[in-house]
Amino acid sequence: MRNLIAFFVRHNFTFVFLLLQLLCFILMLRNRNYQGSHLLNSTNQVVAKVYETSSNTKIYFSLREENDRLAKENAILKNYLKSSYAAIPLIEYKKNDTFYKQQYTYLDAKVVNASVNRRSNYLTINAGSAQGLSRDMAVVHPEGIVGIIKDVSANYASVMSVLHKDVRVNCQLKKDGSYGPLIWDGKDYRYCLLTDIPTHARLKKGDTVITSELSGIFPEGIMVGTIDSYERRQNEQFYTVKVKLSVDLKKTNHVYIVKNKFKTERDSLEKKSQTQSDD
Length: 279
Prior knowledge:
Blueprint: H1 2-10, H2 12-31, H3 33-61, H4 63-78, E1 85-89, E2 98-102, E3 104-114, E4 120-125, E5 138-141, E6 144-152, E7 157-164, E8 169-173, E9 179-183, E10 191-198, E11 208-211, E12 223-232, E13 238-245, E14 254-260, H5 263-278
Helix pairs in contact: 2-3
């Protein structure tokens, strides 16, 4: 107790100063509207900033959940796109009348593994036969094409990306309509080559390249990329077009699997015709 009293006596000027400061502060707030309102506004700004920071932090940590929700929502909406339906003529009713039957359905999935620096590159997605996936289904991204499903397990699928030596996707020039197979030369993951484009085609750097209905796997009109350059190689009668892919396959996280409901019928018919022609 004696030490405590000695402490207060030794620092009595300091405690008196702090007491007077507190008293002045209280009197200022009570009698000066400007200072009081200014302090209140400053306090509100600080509190608001704290709330904003807290809200932004919560939003950041919920981005993954939000991305998953948006991917599922987009998959549902893609099923209602006009490009997912095929016009079927109703000759028995009216010669020029048609109705639309859904040809393509979409399912969302996540990329859990991927490569871009090999000659044959793959992606692994977290959906498989249990979700209705099977071999030769198209895989796309909101910004363009990704690849084709090769193997399927119960809950996973292996996808040959467009950066695979064995992948050939029939694509076309959006403006000109000329088409040819899209291949990868194994060099830069950002580019593929569109081959067999006729020399009479009207080509221009920056023109859009999209999927062709001839692919039989991808819906027509899916974005592929843009023309970076083109050349007519020696002893070739066609242009080889360098296409900058619209999708960065190094950063692809969410994809959509496209199922062509008419593919089995088409493949069966084409196989039958090929067998007959061989005979």
